[in-house]
């Protein structure tokens, strides 16, 4: 009986020891697990902090530097154009074209060379006339433009008739065509000045 009692006590003691050992192990495991969770949280928090720093750096780089001049100053030419009216611009262009036309020279004294110079001169003025007319179409009110259109048709007829009449003085001669083109160029130059001075704003 005494032996049974001692055996029971021994078994209980061993059982208690085992339970204590198991409880301690599970506490240690729990502590280790908690430690891992905390470490994981620390890593995550550190990663988040690093990400925040990177985002802040990116934002800082995207913001304009206070020392940099971010204002876009327009070139002086654009400002000058804004203060210059179309009329002034085209008056200057007329003078430039006149100078260019006067600088045209024949390669020799033949009628063919002279005709080429006058033809080039007429083309310069005719091209500018068409440009001026296009600007006026945009500038003028519909009723005023309608009157100008009619006036321009009459002017073209006058120009062609005048050139033909002048050329007939040299009918059949080498000067006939030359005179025709000379008159076309002169009248077209004059008309360019009239349109700019009288109609352009």
From TrEMBL:
The keyword Signal applies. Residues 107-195 form the Lysozyme inhibitor LprI-like N-terminal domain. Residues 34-43 have a biased composition (Low complexity). It comes from the Bacteria. Keywords: Signal. Pfam families: LprI. Gene3D superfamilies: 1.20.1270.180. InterPro entries: LprI-like_N (IPR009739). Residues 1-26 form the signal peptide. The keyword Phosphoprotein does not apply. Residues 26-89 are annotated as: Disordered. This is Lysozyme inhibitor LprI-like N-terminal domain-containing protein.
């Amino acid at each position: 009986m005494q032996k049974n009692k001692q055996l029971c006590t021994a078994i209980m003691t061993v059982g208690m020891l085992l339970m204590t050992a198991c409880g301690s192990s599970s506490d240690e495991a729990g502590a280790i697990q908690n430690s891992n969770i905390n470490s994981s949280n620390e890593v995550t928090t550190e990663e988040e902090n690093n990400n925040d720093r990177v985002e802040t750096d990116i934002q800082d780089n995207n913001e304009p530097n206070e020392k940099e001049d971010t204002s876009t100053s327009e070139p002086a030419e654009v400002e000058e154009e804004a203060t210059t009216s179309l009329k002034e611009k085209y008056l200057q262009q007329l003078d430039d074209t006149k100078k260019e036309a006067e600088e045209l020279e024949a390669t020799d004294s033949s009628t063919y060379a002279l005709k080429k110079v006058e033809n080039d001169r007429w083309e310069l003025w005719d091209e500018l006339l068409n440009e001026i007319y296009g600007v006026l179409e945009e500038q003028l009110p519909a009723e005023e433009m309608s009157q100008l259109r009619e006036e321009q048709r009459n002017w073209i007829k006058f120009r062609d008739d005048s050139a033909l009449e002048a050329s007939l003085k040299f009918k059949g001669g080498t000067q006939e065509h030359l005179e025709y083109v000379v008159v076309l160029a002169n009248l077209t130059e004059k008309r360019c000045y009239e349109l700019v001075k009288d109609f352009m704003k």
